[in-house]
Specification:
Length: 192
């Protein structure tokens, strides 16, 4: 088999190793696209509730509430032990907890989607690695064939060189070497 034919076979085998995958998705954009108005409002409230600005504002409102009612600066609407303030804080806590739980549910959904996406990427990577390993094994086989041919050619050259040395030493006409495998056509190397 000629080297040009072998190169064509290798190129054909390389084409077999090409494969396509669906593109990688941008999960953040995909999740944002599917969010409803209520989802966005709940996320914004959860972000606000979890901030120091909210804690400072709540603390400020409670200090003002207690100060105005305890010091009797204006007509007190909620005398000590501040039952109305406790009611408002309990009602507010129930609402904020619900909003935060809704936001956490959406985060859990986003995490599940991210885990599925990571799994898909791992499967793609595994397929790519398998394809690369197959390709490398194929290249190893080809290199091994080339090394074997070079080794056979080297042994043949050494055998011919020994015969020539023997012929020169004996002063006779060197015999014409016959090819080791007469059924094979000679190997032709294409020009680079």
């Amino acid at each position: 088999m000629s080297i040009a034919r072998e190169i064509e076979d290798i190129a054909r085998d390389l084409i077999k190793h090409q494969h396509d995958h669906p593109p990688v998705r941008d999960l953040n954009r995909e999740v944002d696209r599917h969010q409803t108005f209520a989802d966005r409002v709940a996320d914004d409230f959860a972000r606000l509730i979890g901030s120091w600005v909210f804690v400072a504002a709540q603390l400020g409102i409670m200090v003002i509430w207690i100060g105005l009612n305890a010091l009797n600066l204006i007509h007190p609407w909620d005398r000590y032990p501040f039952a109305f303030l406790n009611f408002i804080l309990a009602l507010e806590a129930a609402i904020w907890v619900s909003v935060v739980l809704m936001a956490l549910n959406r985060l859990a959904d986003r995490d599940r989607l991210r885990a599925q996406h990571d799994y898909e990427l791992n499967v793609k990577s595994e397929e790519e690695l398998k394809a690369l390993m197959n390709h490398l094994m194929h290249q190893d086989e080809i290199l091994l064939q080339i090394v074997n041919r070079l080794d056979r050619g080297d042994r043949e050259m050494k055998r011919i060189a020994r015969r020539l040395e023997q012929a020169i030493e004996s002063g006779t006409e060197p015999p014409t070497p016959k090819p080791a495998d007469s059924g094979r056509p000679p190997i032709s190397v294409p020009a680079p």
